[in-house]
Amino acid sequence: MRQRHSSVTDIEIIEDFSSTARCDEGFLRVRRLRCRNRRADGSSSPMYRVDVVDRPRLDAVAVLVYRRGASGLEVLTRMNLRPAAYFRKDNRDAMTVPDPASGYLRVEEIVAGLLEPEDKGEEGLRRRAAAEVHEEAGYAVKPEAIQLLGGAFFLAPGILSEKVFPAAVDVTDLAPEEPEGDGSPLEEGTLLQWRPVQDVLAACRRGDIPDAKTEVALTRLLALHP
After folding, report:
1. Which helix (H) or strand (E) holds 217?
2. Domain ranges in the chain?
3. Where are the alpha helices (DSSP H) in 90-140?
4. pLDDT at 147
5. Residue 31 clears pLDDT 80, i.e. is over it
6. Strand partners, 61
7. Residue 120: helix, strand or coil by DSSP?
8. Dist CA 97 CA 92 (whole Å)
9. Which of 150, 152, 111, 151 is nearest to 128 (CA)?
10. How far, in Å, are 16, 90, 130, 141, 159 from residue 134 at the CA level?
């Protein structure tokens, strides 16, 4: 178990400038569209509104880092600050099922990162995955060691355009370095920990790890290597 920086206990909102910010600027961009369906017989549906949330890069890679030891298969997870999940607490009246009392200051998940314009095809996926594993977990792996776990998936296709490409890498017998990170304040207090694969899968299904890409990558790896 490794922790970077001191523990963070809260995230303070310095300013909420939602009412003055444009929807087409910032890290996330919201397109507000008026649409209608075009049908094969030439008719059209009534007009309706659609909001689409885009990131600067539309694709990401998620990497399940695992190792084999005396106790069996273990996977590496990261506890990361996740403001969007944390600030759900400010809208409790909108919840149909209450969140845990502790909230979601941190979310446990696997290594992940956005694909850059130069990351083309399977070669680019493996290269980016290896870079993210080194930056976030401290393991120097070669791109050819990355296992691609099937097709990409949407996290919330009703609103998010982002697709996630799942992958995995075996770091058995590799010694980790101190992860470089990206220098963001969101990496303060990041906790890396190894856990038995079945413990992580059970935590996903209980909702203790409420991160879809972690469960998808884990179930796909186990399907390949039961």
Report:
1. helix 212-224
2. 2-8+56-224
3. 121-137
4. 97
5. yes
6. 113, 165
7. coil
8. 9
9. 111
10. 35, 35, 6, 7, 31
> Span 97-112, mean pLDDT?
92
**In this predicted model, which residue has the larger pLDDT, 7 or 139?**
139
Look up the CATH number of domain 2-8+56-224.
3.90.79.10
Nearest to 191 by CA among 201, 181, 199: 181
pLDDT at 122 over 90: yes
197: enclosing H helix or E strand: helix 197-206
% the chain with pLDDT above 90:
76
pLDDT-wise least confident of 4-13, 50-59, 194-203, 210-219: 4-13
How far is Cα 135 from Cα 112, in angstroms, rounded to an integer? 10
For the CA atoms of 115, 119, 120, 122, the dihedral, rounded to the nearest 10 degrees, stands at -80
Contact by Cβ (8 Å): 86, 105: yes
Would you say 36 and 46 are in contact if contact means Cβ atoms under 8 Å apart?
yes
Q: Between the CA of residue 126 and those of 57, 119, 187, what are the distances in Å? A: 17, 9, 23
Q: Coil, strand or helix: which one is 114? A: strand
User: Which residue type, as a one-letter code, is found at position 15?
Assistant: E
pLDDT reported for residue 56: 83
d(CA 89, CA 134): 33
